[in-house]
Design goal:
GO terms for molecular function: spermidine synthase activity; thermospermine synthase activity. By secondary structure, the chain is α/β, with parallel strands linked by helices. 52% of the residues lie in helices and 14% in strands. It contains 16 helices and eleven strands. The longest helix has 55 residues.
Amino acid sequence: MIDRTEQLSPPPGPVRLPVRPAAGRFLVLLVVFVCAACGLVYELELVALASYLIGDSVTQASVVLSVMVFAMGVGSLLAKRLRCRAAVGFGLLELSLALIGGCSAMALYASFAWVGESQTVLVAFALIIGVLIGAELPLLMSLIQRVSRQDVEGTVADLFAADYVGALVGGLAFPFLLLPWLGQLTSGLLTGAVNAVAGGLLVLWLFRRDLTRRSRAWLIVANAAVLAVLGTATVLVDDFERAARAAVYGDRVRVAVQTEVQEVVITGDREGPLDLFLDGRLWVSSRDERRYHEALVHPAMLGRHERVLILGGGDGLAAREALRYPDTASVTVVELDPGVVRLARSDPALAALNRRAHHDHRTRVVTADAFSWLRAPRGLWDVVIVDLPDPGITQSAKFYSQEFYGLITAALADGGRLAVHAGPSGSRPRTYWTVDATLRAAGFGTSPYRVTGRGSGPAGGTDSRAAGEPATPGDWGFLLAARGSRPPLGLDPDGPPPRTLTRASLAANGWGAERTRVRGLRPSTLVQPRYPD
């Protein structure tokens, strides 16, 4: 995108063009439009991939955008040295931007997969790409003034207009066209190719008389080389993804799909441990997922439980536990990603793990955002289970807000109970007890408890992401809640006995969670989220 740090006076002497000045001016503005669109795609690529690989989308967006805006100012100042040879300088600039910006997503993913560190690479690419984008304005200003010597103010206005419209197109094309159709890596490479072609055509055709024969030859060779690199990378991108995926998840990857919402990877099968990863985070490990899901569901089933609502839980494992009760009449699962539900139904190993919960006639699946779905009256439920991503993840903050729990209040029948996965109470006590404070602010009484386990994400206690890595012991923290009063911690004496949970262990787990209590915390709201730590 164009930086506004300075307005440049036109260089002396017009250039001879193969078209009339008006047409030449239009072509320059068209290239500004294309370059602005490409520049914004590079930015969004870095933000999206960094959010996926590193987490905390707000932080990653802030880092990328702030570094790039700063670097654009630096690039605008550095471009002064190239104004005397604006055509050659712009040609080299766009080639560099096409190569670095187009390959930035692959480089970031490679760093994550094989080195295990992405933050430094992210900042480096944001800085370099920002410098290159910022240098475009002084050079384009020089070129357009050589085409048509109009007033500087009018020229700057035209450049800004083309730049902003191009940014709009790039910003809309990335999430709605490039990402769903091509994926993150291929869309970056294709954007780089478009960038190189646009810059090359402008310089090598429109301003060819401004180049020496040697400069023209070098630019032709450089354009061909950059396009060859981008084309080769596009052809090999599937092999690259498979190799990087094997480096991250190990050699047991059996399913890897990009759904409408996220990347879903399954490793292992019926014969060995099964792990389910969502966007690079371990979500379910068959080694000990039962400890998590039994602790999440069974304490909430003490009492009336004919109608059960599960928010999240598209893997079917929480539904499996609720369906073990013969007097459960219906289980409604509200899941955002239909791809996860499809795999939970069709994948033999995952369907065996959830005991074909999605094929049970009592199960009903709704594809929707849980927050939006709860805003319209849907009936009343005896039990509500919140099986959603950790509250420390920025994207999940709204599901742990006072407003969200207020919506659940209206969905609970008289005497109904709510069970919430609230993150590890031992390693992140402020997050855990902020969820407790938020529930109480929404009118709930709460009973805290936790269970120990290994793994990652909601089905584990650490942040380790790679398959096969030795996981360290951690805990899953839960909160059992009811309107107005504190619900008792216990198990239904007439229900199916859990395999990993007893009344005695549940009482001990409640005492263990209580020992980590942090007092004086404020509730989290939509406008004042209190997560992460």
